[in-house]
Amino acid sequence: MTRGTTNPNRLRRMDRWIAAVHGAELRRAGDAVAVDLGYGAAPWTPVELLQRLRTVAPRARVVGVEIDPARVAAARPYEREGLAFRHGGFEIPLPERPSLIRAANVLRQYEEAEVAEVWARLCARLAPACANSRGGLLVEGTCDEIGRRHVWVALGAEGPRTVTFATRLGSLDRPSDLAERLPKALIHRNVPGEPVHAFLRDFDRAWAAAAPYASYGVRQRWIRAVRDLTADWPVTDGATRWRQGEVTVRWGALAPRG
Questions:
Q1: Which of 48, 54, 138, 257 is found 20 to 30 A from 80 (Cα to Cα)?
Q2: Is residue 226 within 8 Å of residue 206, measured between CB atoms?
Q3: Which SUPFAM superfamilies match (predicted)?
Q4: In DSSP terms, which residues pair with 103 in a beta bridge?
């Protein structure tokens, strides 16, 4: 069981990214099911997830899954068309295979060695790929208490695909401030010799070099810093996402060594 602490709008950055990059898959799935795993002591995050997904996939449904029966009982009055709550955990107690599983601030209490097994278990429950779909998506990561800083890994049935760093730009002194919100698979690897440490080091250097752009605003400084990063790192998105205070990098470039 997680601590259960949550706040309204805490996962807005993750939701916004999911809608942008996975919305087309959800639309193609039609009556797609999204799971908010470990939503906490209050049902705000599944309620908000439904609202945001339906802007891009009007038939999407959301199921909040919690391991604490008391939290499920407390959330049941919020059920409505397209929104339900179930008792369960990593087994994902649904008859169908979801098109999306979101697990935010869930694995931080586990050991790093347990992460791969949990990822594999959750990915095995995702909707399979087919002729016109890459299949379901698992989004797992960590954010601060009010959602200003967030880092998550996106995974398909084949395993990890990307790592996304997202922030309220005005809250940063330097990009490496996001290190405290690295997901469990990476947070203990932010040490010399590991790729994620090298990435954050290079990001800080690019941020410093982009200081003259601060006169045009912090957003322009971020965009310039990320653009410089693309020379050495496999950034997968473009300026549209960078303007949101995001940058996404291929998992293989940041994966732990060994």
A1: 138
A2: yes
A3: S-adenosyl-L-methionine-dependent methyltransferases
A4: 37, 140
- Secondary element (H or E) of residue 84: strand 83-87
CA distances from 194 to 122, 235, 254 (A): 26, 18, 8
* pLDDT surpasses 90 at 47: yes
Cβ 156 vs Cβ 122: under 8 Å: no
Count CB-CB contacts under 10 A for residue 174. 14
- Give tens-digit pLDDT for 188-233: 999 999 999 999 999 999 999 999 999 999 999 999 999 999 999 9
pLDDT in tens, 146-176: 999 999 999 999 999 999 999 999 999 999 9
- Distance, in Å, from the CA atom of 131 to the CA atom of 212, rounded to the nearest integer, reads 48
- As a residue count, the chain comes to 258
Closest CA to 53 of 37, 74, 80, 35: 35
Average pLDDT in the 177-194 region? Answer: 97
Q: Are 153 and 251 in contact (CB under 8 A)?
A: yes
Query: Residue 139 in contact with residue 101, Cβ under 8 Å?
Result: yes
Cα distance between residue 145 and residue 149, in whole Å: 9
How far apart CA 253 and CA 175 sit, in angstroms, is 17
